[in-house]
TrEMBL record:
PANTHER family the record matches: HAD SUPERFAMILY HYDROLASE-LIKE, TYPE 3, PHOSPHOSERINE PHOSPHATASE
Organism: Flavimobilis rhizosphaerae
Protein name per the record: HAD-IIB family hydrolase
Lineage: Bacteria, Bacillati, Actinomycetota, Actinomycetes, Micrococcales
PROSITE patterns, per the entry: COF_1 (PS01228)
Keyword Hydrolase: yes
Amino acid sequence: MTSGIRLIASDVDGTLLTPDHRITPAVRTAVRRATDAGVTVVLASARGPEAFRHIVAELGLPPFAESPSDDPLAGAFVSFQGAVVGHFLADGSLDVLHETRLDLEAAREIVRTVVAAGHVANWYDGAAWLPSRWDELGELEARATAVEPAGFIGDAQLVDAGARAPHKLMVPPCAWDPELVPRIAANLPEGCEGFLSGEHYLEIVASGVDKSSGLVQLAADLGVGPAAMAAVGDGPNDLGMFAHVGTAVAMANASDAVKAAAAWVTASNREDGLALAIDRLLG
């Protein structure tokens, strides 16, 4: 390896995965080539930790790799938009390295607003995904992430004094009122920050939390500076990462704004764009 890159951060949906949520053989091979070269590959997404489990396993990253790694954080990921940074241990358990939760009362206020409008809210606490109700949007989420809900939002989240605040809330696009999600995003309580991912899904986390904050924490753990870091992504929620790395790469399926923030553009997620990017980054 001659490029000096020591860490490659990759978005998941729209970057690592094809539109039908697959990892192509070329992408698997490129990720393996990077890790074999001593480069730490970090996955960064609005998805929760459990949605990373099958992806990490399919990529052959630790602890699911065929051979052990000298990299103590190999297989690490930035989940919930940066609210949980972790990796899986050899026994399959989740090791949380860094976490930031929403304010509980602010989270409750948002959920009540969404539910009162007749729409669905999603509450994420560690491995647990709790929708406010089950519908076709929940079915889509379950298929896309290979994660099933642990129950439904209820008094344990919205009333009980001992409730834990969520790491993230998610509000999917509303077909019958397209302006609902923008209204909610524009009126979030203090201390909350909203990002759009995928097809205008509103991801809500604590202020100051985004993929870049999680990536910076991991980079500090590894002792890697910005010049030795690269990021590949396709969405506006990847722009924070782009600003914190030495080399930013946009997918061909990204918006013009994301492409404009990148050093260069690779092929689309239909055309093994991440694999091509990794090959070029390795030099």
